[in-house]
Structures are given as structure tokens and as C-alpha cells.
Amino acid sequence: MKAPKVMIVGFDAATWDLAKPWVAEGFMPNLARLMAEGARGQLESILPPITPPAWTSFTTGKNPGKHGVFHFMESTPDTYALRYTNASSRRTRTIWKILNQAGIGTGTANIPFTYPPEVLNGYQISGMDTPSEKSAFIHPPELREELERELGPLKLDIRFLGFMNTDERRDQVLDEMRQMDEQWTHVGLYLLKHRPQDVTMLVFMSIDTVQHYFWQFMDKSHFLHDPAAEAKFGDAIRNVYQRLDESLGKLLEYTNDGTTVFVVSDHGGGPVSDRVVYLNRYLGQLGLLCYQQDTNNLLRKTLRTVLRRGYMFLRSNLSSRQKVRLAALLPQLRLKTESFYTSFTSIDWSQTKAYCSEVLASPPSIWINLKGRKPHGIVDDSEYENLRDEIITKISELRDPRTGEPVIKRVLRREKIFHGSFAAEAPDLNLDWWEASHFMTGPAFPMIRMNHR
Q1: How many CB atoms lie within 10 A of CB 192?
Q2: Strand 82-84, strand 106-111: pairing
Q3: How far apart, in whole angstroms, are the C-alpha atoms of residue 138 and residue 125?
Q4: What is the rounded distance in angstroms from the CA atom of residue 419 to the CA atom of residue 421?
Q5: How many Å apart are CA 402 and CA 395, to the nearest integer?
Q6: Measured between alpha carbons, how far is 237 from 165 in angstroms, rounded to an integer?
Q7: Would you call 355 helix, strand, or coil by DSSP?
């Protein structure tokens, strides 16, 4: 059996804050062995530390300003509309292609934002941006037939993710995570045995998922902590770390003394905050954003209510990939729904100087409506810096009424964190929610008008 020269195992969202104590307690013996025999460290993620730019920077070795992937959604040229990001948004070579050109075979599986898959000397199985199981997400195509013949159909979605308001639903999600981890472990082992490459990489996503939805059961200081549920779900996150350590051990059996092994993460994890900021609402209060006028007739109000409730239901019940799939199938319905649910498509661009995207889970960032950048830009270049200074000052004035502390403690200008040919596509101001500050954002509804200071 040919062992890989390099094996990379990705644990999406894994954090040393949890892994180190559990290694010390004996729950992760395979990671412990790698730590003892090799080198380890806390690496800095990309900013903002989210999946699309982080994994893309890992696979290209470049800042987002040089590869063009900044977050889950991207602005379309010459419009204010947004579209979902995928591998086609990446505009530079990956390490897999570079290695191929040097005569080195590569194989990757389940790396986020690799759809559509690259044509490699080896193989590629796309990750979380794959629209559906029906998509052509495996190259070469015959590999899919081979895997499904040997392992059965590949599953990409956790069915019950979202509306988890019962213990039964939570148990179903945890069981599906286990099934997904087992599936990708079987895929990885099969590929190592039957499709050996010089360099291989496999990513597991379940740590990210379980931390998003089960952190409050473990964390006694969490504002949503439920002591009664702690006994049942308090070990949910640790169990996933432990299970993936077991998968790591199985993968390591296919290595030898000549194999270099990397275990990597794209970003960390932690609790969500109970502080919610409605950025577009605040920009409206500052007189920097205006909404379109609305007659507010009864029919429109009723339609808005129906669509808003339907949109909230879908956001709560569908997985990320299911939302992407629905948007692809019914793009006009999505646009109409978002126009009622959020303020973004109800903005009067001819009177707006600054705005924030509120669609889906885009990071809380602010764009300046600069002349020449978008069809209805109104901000002159001479006004740009003063306007950014004003916004930063006003954002610093948002205070937590319980503590008096600033809710948002750091705002980063685009040029401080992005550089390269595509840096101009990034937001003008990036609000730090991951380090200095902890807060969430929510949509400002279009029926709430705030056009004056």
C-alpha cells in the first residue's frame, strides 16, 4: 500500500480552548500522540474568521484580497444584489494545482468552497458549497460511481438541523452528525487504500455544527444555559471531538514514518452573544441610510407579514445547503421574500451613503455607497474618509446598557486587513465580532422608517 507523503486532516472550527483540556483528560489520544511527537501551535485565522475565506486562504496561501473570497455571499458587479459564493469566486491557483504541475498527485475531500470541483491529477470531492447531492461534485465522475457502489449514496445534509426545540430533534441531529462523520471516515479510508495520492486532505464539519447548536448546554455562563438539559447534552461537543479523534487514528494507520501529518482548523468557536445590533436601523437613525417610501396599504402589510413569517420558518428549519438549493430553484421568490423580510432590498440607494448586508448570515460589515462603484452611488471620493471616520465614531457610541461598555470595540478599515487585486471588493468597514467584541446582528424590517437623525 502506498502511503501519502502528506496527509492533512481538517477539523472545521476546532479550537484549542476545548481540545487541550480534553487531550489532557485522555479523550483525544491520537491528537495527543501527534502533539507529543511533532509541533503544535495556535495559528491566526483570516479576518473575518469564517469558513469561506479561511479555507480558501489555506488552499491558496493568499489573503482574501488576492483570491477574491471574503464571505458566504458576494456582491454582483454593477448592482446591489448578492449571490452565494463558491469555488468559482476564487480567482487564483490552489496548492493542489500547483502540486499537480510539479508532478505531485493530490486528492481532497469535503473541503468547503471547492464546488465545482477542480480537474486534478488525483481527485476532488467538493465540500459545503455543493448545491445538492445531484450536483456534479466529484472529479473524476467515475469516482462517484465507485464510491457509491462501495459505500452507498453520499449524504451532504443534516436533515433536522435548525428548528431544534425538542430533545428528540436534538438527538436526531447528533445522530446524523455521527452518521456523517462515519461516512467521511469511510470515504477517507477507501480513498487512501484504493486511490492513493502523494498529498491528501479530508475535512470534517461536525465540530462547527455541534458548537453552533450545543455550546449553551456545556457552558454554565451562557445566557441560554439550561441546567436541566445539561445532563443530556452537556457532553455533546466533547463527544464529537472524541469521535473525530478516533477517525484520525484510523486515518493514521495508512501513514508511515515518511508521512507528514497536519491537523488543521479554519477558525475557532465560542458562545454566541445576547447583544443584538441592527446595523441598517442604526445607519438610518444616523441619517446615512434611507428606505423607499411605502403606501403601507392593507394588502401589502398582510403580504409582508406572511412572507416574513415564512422566511423566519425557513431560516429556522433548513440547513445552509437547503437554503442555497431553494434560492437556486426559486430565485425570484427569494428576492421578493428578502425584500419584505429585511431592509436591504427596500433601501433608497439615491439617498443612502452607507449600508450593511442583512441577507442570511453575512458578517456584519458596512459598505460605502461610493460614486462609480454602484449604479446609484452618491458618496464622492473626497467625502469617503471623513464618512468612514464618522461611522467608526458613531459605532463606538453604541453601549451595552447593563455595563456601559461599547458593544462594538473595534472597527477595521478594509485596507488594514485586505490587500491584493480584489481588495476593493471587500466591505469598507469590518466590525470585529470575534475578538474585541461579542455581538450578533439582526435584520431591520422595512416597515420601521428611520430616515432622520
Answers
A1: 23
A2: unpaired
A3: 5
A4: 7
A5: 17
A6: 18
A7: strand
- Largest Cα–Cα separation, the chain: 73
Write the single-letter amino acid at 48: P
CA distance 317 to 56: 28
CA 5 to chain centre: 30
Contact 128, 118 (CB under 8 A): no
Query: Would you state the pLDDT for residue 288?
Result: 98
Please list the residues that pair with 116 across neighbouring strands: none
> Between 3.60.130.10, 3.30.1540.10, 3.40.720.10, 3.30.565.10, what CATH number should domain 6-264 receive?
3.40.720.10
Burial of 225 (0-12, 13-18, 19+ CB in 10 A): middle
Residue 220: how many other CB atoms lie within 10 Å: 10
Burial class (CB in 10 A: 0-12, 13-18, 19+), 434: middle
Q: Please, where are the H alpha helices in 109-263?
A: 141-151, 167-194, 206-218, 227-233, 236-252
Indicate whether 118 pLDDT > 80: yes
High-pLDDT (> 90) share of the chain, %:
68
Q: Do 200 and 7 meet the contact criterion of CB atoms below 8 Å apart?
A: yes
Strands 73-75 and 106-111: unpaired
Spatial neighbors of 156 by CB under 8 A, at least 6 apart, are 128, 130, 132, 133, 137, 321
Contact 392, 416 (CB under 8 A): no
The CA-CA-CA angle for residues 321, 184, 145, to 5°, reads 85
Name the nearest CA neighbour of 115 among 320, 269, 265, 317: 320
pLDDT tens-digit series, residues 43-72: 889 988 999 999 999 999 999 999 999 998
CB 120 within 8 A of CB 97: yes
DSSP 140-171: SHHHHHHHHHHH-PPP---TT-S---SHHHHH
Domain residues of the chain, as ranges?
Answer: 6-264, 276-291+343-441
Gap between the Cα atoms of 246 and 31, Å rounded: 9
> How does pLDDT run across 397-412, given as a tens digit for each residue?
999 999 999 999 999 9
